[in-house]
Automatic annotation (TrEMBL):
GO terms for cellular component: cytosol. It comes from Silicimonas algicola. This is Phosphoglycolate phosphatase. Pfam families: HAD_2. One of its GO terms (molecular function) is protein tyrosine kinase activity.
Length: 212
């Protein structure tokens, strides 16, 4: 099965909600938004924070992002866990002949530390995420960059993720997508995905069916 599988990180491979939310609460509190800090912040996990902070009405997203990064690097980065069944699913996909790539909205400077910490990094051919300055924050740009760099054919590739950004970005570059139901997205976000998976152990078969 000579195909490329691009995998999201937060909400797809790793349940990173505790560390991300605690860092968001800190950032929102110190930048003067205690009412938002006290709300449910799950919706902010996945999309680029510059987009989410702006959507929340924060006038200085850059300051909030800087505060978030301070707390995240200090305490939040590894306050997470790999979803049960993910390593086995990744191994099964790789054994079937597919190439695995990380494609995350998290800056790669952080993402690579996380995948190494949790033992996922050796399974990837390459790992892609935005730059810290926001370059390639939009996942469509990130996937286009990854395809150009790797030479992978989008028609023989698939994006797997939990949010609408994953589905929309894949469509933008001409690759199909699979949505996962165990992350932070909702059913309304998955329109356009070829299938919605409920468990990690469904990933290998779903990928195989796409390219049968």
């Amino acid at each position: 099965m000579s195909v490329a599988v691009f995998l999201d990180l937060d909400g797809t491979l790793v349940d990173s909600r505790p560390g991300i939310v605690s860092s968001l609460v800190y950032a929102l509190t110190v930048t003067g938004h205690p009412e938002l800090a006290a709300s449910d912040l799950t919706w902010m996990i996945g999309p680029p924070f510059v987009e989410s902070f702006a959507k929340a009405g924060i006038s200085d997203p850059a300051a909030a992002i800087e505060a978030y990064r301070v707390k995240y690097q200090e305490a939040g980065m590894y306050d997470a866990q790999v979803y049960a069944g993910i390593p086995e699913a990744m191994d099964a996909i790789g054994l079937a002949g597919a190439r695995l790539y990380l494609a995350t909205a998290k800056p790669h400077a952080y993402a690579k530390l996380i995948t190494a910490h949790f033992g996922l990094a050796p399974r990837f051919v390459a790992e892609y995420g935005p730059e810290l300055d926001g370059t390639r924050n939009w996942k469509g740009d990130l996937l286009a960059h990854a395809l150009a760099e790797t030479g992978e054919d989008p028609a023989r590739s698939v994006m797997i993720g939990d949010r609408h950004h994953d589905v929309a970005a894949a469509a933008e570059v001409g690759m199909p997508s699979l949505a996962v139901g165990w992350g932070y997205g909702t059913a309304a976000e998955w329109h356009g995905a070829r299938a919605v998976l409920e468990r990690p152990d469904q990933m290998p078969e779903a990928v195989a069916r796409l390219f049968a």
